[in-house]
Write a structure and sequence with these properties.
Oligomer: single chain
Radius of gyration: 17 Å
Strand content: under 5%
Length: 193
């Protein structure tokens, strides 16, 4: 059970469903409610498939390329830190007009729900805690993100756009700290060898 929570928390921060909410609302602004529900389901399925396939073959790709755990931890931690820093310093997340037909798959499923932060974090967690807790945490976090997006209009009314931005900034700060921790652990692995 401890392994599950050690996987769940970093992935919860990486998914940042509340932080994605204002961008999701902007992307679906003016789209009828029935179509928004289809977009959420398309995003949810896309995110789950991408995350699970990456967990299944990501390890093989790393082995093929000769990338060690320490290499991936330093690279992944640096990437998480950079992504969180850009979110922390950004005034507004920008978007461009996107075709509504594929909106659920791209950009909502990938990269908003499952992006570089989630993929990097999940692969590192897989190496540390194993397949079952990692996949369970990934699936639960993606489903929770889907639920947040499903009830997006009600949630924005409750927390407001400012509240959603505040939660997003806090999540980015936690993600930065997790990135630094991964880099530190990766460097320690280099030093131990």
């Amino acid at each position: 059970m401890k392994e599950f929570w050690l996987c769940f928390v970093p992935l919860f921060v990486a998914v940042d469903a509340i932080g994605v909410l204002p961008l999701f609302m902007n992307l679906t602004d003016g789209v009828e409610k029935k179509r928004v529900r289809k977009i959420v389901l398309q995003g949810l399925v896309t995110a789950l498939v991408v995350a699970i396939v990456f967990l299944a073959i990501g390890e093989l790709i790393l082995k093929f390329l000769g990338i060690t755990v320490a290499d991936f931890m330093v690279a992944g931690g640096s990437l998480l830190f950079a992504l969180s820093l850009s979110d922390l310093l950004a005034v507004e997340k920008h978007h461009r007009k996107i075709d509504v037909q594929g909106l659920g798959a791209v950009p909502i499923g990938v990269p908003l729900i499952v992006g570089p932060a989630v993929l990097t974090t999940s692969l590192l967690l897989l190496r540390q805690y194993g397949m079952v807790p990692t996949i369970t945490a990934v699936v639960l976090n993606v489903v929770m993100a889907g639920v947040v997006l499903w009830f997006s209009q009600a949630l924005i009314r409750v927390v407001g756009k400012t509240g959603a931005k505040t939660v997003s900034k806090l999540a980015s700060l936690l993600l930065a700290a997790i990135g630094v921790m991964m880099v530190r652990k990766g460097i320690m692995l280099f030093l131990i060898r």
